[in-house]
Write a structure and sequence with these properties.
alpha/beta; eight-stranded parallel β-sheet; 13 strands; about 40% helix
């Protein structure tokens, strides 16, 4: 009921229908997502845990339940992990060695998303040691006798990069055992994400990560250039435009929002925002003021410098914050959603947001304070649903204006 187009009428997102491109709208050139030559806006969510939970067939209903409830609330994009490196229930047991049962769990996630008409952003690695991540890749190399200094060698060591590239190729060329469709040919997948929240302690300028992104993004596109591609960045500014550092929350993490996203193969930019964590000593008003500046500055740079869409791909408010109550969370989410909508009105460059995170009932081990159970949080669920309707209505409005210009 929330879809004004058929998910499977278009063959691919990039080059054959869904892409970012410049359009002369509202008397200025802006950049937006397009689907079948019409603007595409969305409201979405994170559920990183889906593959991990789906490895147990008796728990797969939790994946189905969240996708079903999300779809009913008008949420049309989900970001989730397509990695689990080493450790418990690993997808990649060791470099190039995969657990078929876990891969079939990811197959199930993709197939269920297709069933409920939810598009996926699949992240291919983690910066942190949760589910293995960058530290596991470095440890594999160290165990193989490769001379490594620290986890930041992930970005520069050719052996480690070959491990990662192999994983990229295995996921992109995977044939889904349920749908019989290769991941790289599946329109259910909206985009690939190179790595969740890349950070580099040995080089705060952003140049080390910039070199890695350039090499890996080119590699991804050499295998497959029909889906969208993004880095997975939090949005911290680096050395390329020093005056933008004023918008950082008082520190840098080794990325450069401008230069990293200017790379030609990167199709859209992302930002994350956790002012309750980044500015934990400040009150709600100060945190919200930071949030407004954070979103506006990245929207402006995406529209005028990058000329690519931007997505707020992680945000939320933790129940573990001092003084937390449901009113404060709902107030915060309303304010963020209003900002997304208002910025999206300016041509669609700010294309949508992905709340962190949706879980199903009885998933206490995955609760991190930010969790939302749509069936148990009616007031928050109502706010999310209202945002979905607003973004869909805005998409219709922008599409109508575009048709009028064409006529």
């Amino acid at each position: 009921m929330f879809w004004h187009f058929s998910l499977f009428l278009f063959p691919y997102f990039v080059k054959l229908g869904f892409s970012w491109r410049h359009q002369d709208l509202f008397k200025s050139k802006v950049t937006e997502f397009q689907l079948n030559n019409s603007p595409f806006l969305f409201d979405g969510f994170n559920s990183y845990w889906m593959m991990h939970v789906a490895t147990d067939p008796t728990q797969r209903d939790k994946v189905s339940n969240v996708l079903c409830e999300a779809s009913a609330a008008g949420l049309t994009v989900c970001r989730t992990w397509a990695f689990s490196d080493g450790g418990d229930q690993a997808l990649q047991i060791s470099p190039g060695v995969y657990d078929e049962q876990v891969f079939q769990a990811l197959d199930f996630v993709v197939a269920e998303a297709r069933k409920y008409r939810v598009r996926l952003i699949l992240s291919l690695a983690n910066n942190y040691n949760d589910f293995g991540g960058r530290p596991q890749y470095v440890q594999w190399a160290k165990s193989a006798g490769v001379p490594v200094k620290n986890d930041d060698d992930f970005y520069t060591n050719p052996i480690i990069k070959s491990y990662y590239k192999n994983h990229v190729k295995r996921v992109l060329t995977r044939i889904n055992t349920i749908t019989r469709t290769a991941y790289k040919d599946d329109p259910t997948i909206m985009a690939w994400e190179l790595i969740n929240e890349p950070r580099c302690q040995v080089d705060y300028s952003g140049k080390t990560i910039n070199g890695w992104v350039q090499e890996i993004a080119s590699y991804v596109k050499s295998i497959h250039n029909k889906h969208l591609l993004e880095v997975g960045m939090e949005g911290f500014y680096g050395d390329s435009v020093p005056d933008r550092k004023q918008y950082n929350p008082g520190y840098q993490v080794g990325t450069d929002f401008i230069s990293n996203n200017l790379i030609r193969e990167i199709d859209f930019a992302t930002i994350h925002a956790y002012p309750d964590n980044w500015l934990s000593g400040q009150n709600d008003s100060a945190q919200m003021a930071f949030m407004q500046n954070w979103m506006t500055s990245h929207w402006r740079d995406s529209a005028t410098v990058l000329k690519k869409p931007v997505v707020l791909s992680e945000f939320g408010k933790s129940k573990k914050d001092p003084g937390y109550n449901i009113f404060s969370r709902n107030s915060y989410m309303n304010a963020v959603y209003s900002s997304i909508y208002n910025l999206a009105q300016n041509g669609g460059t700010f294309a949508g947001g992905l709340v962190w995170q949706l879980v199903d009932e009885g998933m206490n081990s995955y609760c991190d304070g930010y969790e939302i159970v749509l069936s148990q949080d009616p007031s928050t669920s109502s706010i999310i649903t209202q945002q979905s309707y607003k973004m869909i209505a805005l998409e219709h409005s922008l599409s109508s204006m575009l048709r009028l210009r064409r006529d």
